[in-house]
């Protein structure tokens, strides 16, 4: 095994979710405001050790699949089979040409998988060749006959609940699936069972009680309530920007054109208000700053309208499944007078960001004729953004 094994992930999503009741296949239903499959795929798509994410879907779901995972990194989906086992096999065959060293196989119906569980799965496969996440059993389990009479009480301390992502050396699990297909075995409910059948030793590693599979309508009700009760991953960021005045007859401030006796000296349109907001949002995401995303050295941004920058920052939040709770900007200048323009600016920021205007504040102050803003050499702006990400790899704050 190379030092840095190439690791792919298969996301099986071709099931019909019959046990979950009405509402279409459960992986496309919403949980905590996001499609189940988006939550299940996101930690794989963003994991630095996963080189490819291979979804397996039912062709009837192609449209809803595309919409549900928009913005995530994955290779084109392949068609699933009539059973979970057949769907996994289809995913493995799709990866056969790329031949990764390790493959992780995950249920799209397990939306609460974390980055750390994925890392454990990769480490376990690298160390053992075949491993699954497992959690201890809390209740006593009975083995019963067809009439419900107890045949045996297995020793609870040795029982485990099997989860996904299950991780394997790619060539071994592909060969195991091919052999099962050749021999007409299609009854394995997980890949570990199939691996055991071909004689592989399968290890276990620490699973995660939160990484449950959504199977029944009650699972949806319970997990929806749990998510609603969480504060979520709330973050705030601040931004600051300054632009000097030059020649001109108008200024762009907070997305609106303000007639003025001066213009801005700037690479873009010089909209200090929007620039400060972009930095506040990127700050909340710990995702660099406006200069790192739109370098002033890049001629592409010369004279650019700053609403593009703000839209981009908002998309950085929404593509992570997050939402902006509120935006606030304070403009520091003697002139132009911001008060009469305040609501127009709030409306424009709300329009650019898709927020309700009640979540957008525009404030202004002078600097009492002190400093560069007091001397009317330019305008400064500070901003603050609060965002809420739906969950965090390290758990809710
Ligand atoms: N033919 C199938 C059956 C299941 N799966 C996937 O395997 C995972 C675990 O299966 P399960 O929870 O049983 O899902 P369903 O088969 O959809 O559910 P049900 O048995 O209630 O119909 C799910 O992500 C499901 O989409 C699949 O890709 N192809
Ligand atoms: C693979 C699995 O999620 C491990 O617990 C489980 O076996 C899937 O079973 P299902 O019958 O497809 O629900």
UniProtKB/TrEMBL annotation:
Q: Where is this region: 2-C-methyl-D-erythritol 4-phosphate cytidylyltransferase?
A: 1-234
Reactions the enzyme catalyzes: 4-CDP-2-C-methyl-D-erythritol 2-phosphate = 2-C-methyl-D-erythritol 2,4-cyclic diphosphate + CMP; 2-C-methyl-D-erythritol 4-phosphate + CTP + H(+) = 4-CDP-2-C-methyl-D-erythritol + diphosphate
Keyword annotations for this protein? Isoprene biosynthesis, Lyase, Metal-binding, Multifunctional enzyme, Nucleotidyltransferase, Transferase
Question: Which residue numbers mark the site Positions MEP for the nucleophilic attack?
Answer: 156, 213
Indicate which residues the UniProt annotation says bind a divalent metal cation.
Answer: 241, 243, 275
Q: Does the keyword Plastid apply?
A: no
Which BP terms does GO give this entry?
A: isopentenyl diphosphate biosynthetic process, methylerythritol 4-phosphate pathway; terpenoid biosynthetic process
Looking up Pfam families in the UniProt record yields: IspD (PF01128), YgbB (PF02542)
Q: Which PROSITE patterns match?
A: ISPD, ISPF
SUPFAM superfamilies according to UniProt: IpsF-like (SSF69765), Nucleotide-diphospho-sugar transferases (SSF53448)
Cofactor(s) listed in the protein's UniProt record: a divalent metal cation
- Domain 2-C-methyl-D-erythritol 2,4-cyclodiphosphate synthase: from-to ranges: 235-387
Site (Transition state stabilizer) location in chain: 19, 26, 267, 366
Pathway of this protein? Isoprenoid biosynthesis; isopentenyl diphosphate biosynthesis via DXP pathway; isopentenyl diphosphate from 1-deoxy-D-xylulose 5-phosphate: step 2/6; Isoprenoid biosynthesis; isopentenyl diphosphate biosynthesis via DXP pathway; isopentenyl diphosphate from 1-deoxy-D-xylulose 5-phosphate: step 4/6
Q: Where does 4-CDP-2-C-methyl-D-erythritol 2-phosphate bind?
A: 241-243, 267-268, 289-291, 365-368, 372, 375
Instruction: Spell out the residue ranges making up region: 2-C-methyl-D-erythritol 2,4-cyclodiphosphate synthase.
Output: 235-397
Q: Give the EC number.
A: 2.7.7.60, 4.6.1.12
- One example GO MF annotation: metal ion binding
What family does this belong to? Belongs to the IspF family.
Provide the function of this protein. Answer: Bifunctional enzyme that catalyzes the formation of 4-diphosphocytidyl-2-C-methyl-D-erythritol from CTP and 2-C-methyl-D-erythritol 4-phosphate (MEP) (IspD), and catalyzes the conversion of 4-diphosphocytidyl-2-C-methyl-D-erythritol 2-phosphate (CDP-ME2P) to 2-C-methyl-D-erythritol 2,4-cyclodiphosphate (ME-CPP) with a corresponding release of cytidine 5-monophosphate (CMP) (IspF).
Q: Which NCBIfam families match?
A: ispD (TIGR00453), ispF (TIGR00151), PRK09382.1 (NF006899)
Q: What is this protein called?
A: Bifunctional enzyme IspD/IspF
Ranked from the top, the taxonomy reads: Bacteria, Pseudomonadati, Pseudomonadota, Alphaproteobacteria, Hyphomicrobiales
Gene name per UniProt? ispDF
């Amino acid at each position: 095994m190379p030092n840095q094994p190439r690791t792919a992930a298969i996301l099986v999503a071709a099931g019909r979710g019959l046990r979950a009741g009405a509402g279409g296949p459960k992986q496309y239903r919403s949980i905590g405001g996001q499609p189940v499959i988006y939550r299940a795929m996101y930690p794989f798509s963003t994991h630095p050790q996963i080189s490819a994410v291979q979804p397996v879907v039912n062709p009837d779901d192609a449209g809803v699949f595309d919409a549900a995972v928009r913005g995530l990194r994955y290779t084109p989906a392949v068609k699933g089979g009539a059973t979970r086992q057949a769907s996994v096999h289809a995913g493995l065959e799709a990866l056969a040409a790329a031949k990764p060293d390790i493959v992780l196989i995950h249920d799209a119906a397990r939306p609460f998988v974390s980055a750390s569980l994925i890392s454990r799965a990769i480490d376990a496969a690298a160390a053992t060749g075949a491993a699954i996440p497992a959690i201890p059993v809390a209740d006593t389990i009975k083995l019963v006959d067809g009439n419900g009479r107890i045949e045996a009480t297995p020793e609870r301390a040795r029982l485990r609940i099997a989860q996904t992502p299950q991780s394997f050396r790619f060539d071994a699990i592909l060969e195991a699936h091919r052999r099962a297909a050749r021999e007409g075995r299609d009854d394995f409910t997980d890949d570990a069972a199939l691996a055991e059948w071909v004689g592989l030793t399968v290890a276990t590693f620490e699973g995660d009680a939160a990484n449950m599979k959504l199977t029944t309508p009650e699972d949806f009700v319970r997990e929806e309530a749990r998510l609603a009760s969480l504060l979520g991953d709330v973050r705030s960021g601040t931004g600051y920007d300054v632009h000097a005045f030059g020649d001109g007859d108008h200024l762009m401030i907070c997305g609106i054109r303000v007639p003025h006796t001066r213009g801005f000296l700037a690479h873009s349109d010089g909209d200090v208000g929007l620039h400060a907001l972009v930095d506040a949002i990127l700050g909340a995401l710990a995702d660099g700053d406006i200069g790192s995303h739109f370098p002033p050295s890049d001629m592409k941004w010369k004279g650019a309208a700053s609403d593009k920058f703000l839209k981009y920052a908002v998309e950085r939040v929404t593509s992570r499944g997050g939402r902006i709770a509120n935006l606030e900007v304070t403009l520091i200048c003697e002139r132009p007078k911001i008060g009469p323009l305040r609501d127009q600016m709030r409306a424009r920021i709300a329009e650019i960001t898709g927020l309700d205007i009640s979540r957008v504040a525009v404030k202004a102050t002078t600097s009492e004729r002190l400093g560069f803003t007091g001397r009317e050499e330019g305008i400064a702006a500070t901003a603050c953004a609060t965002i809420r990400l739906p969950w965090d790899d390290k758990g809710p704050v």
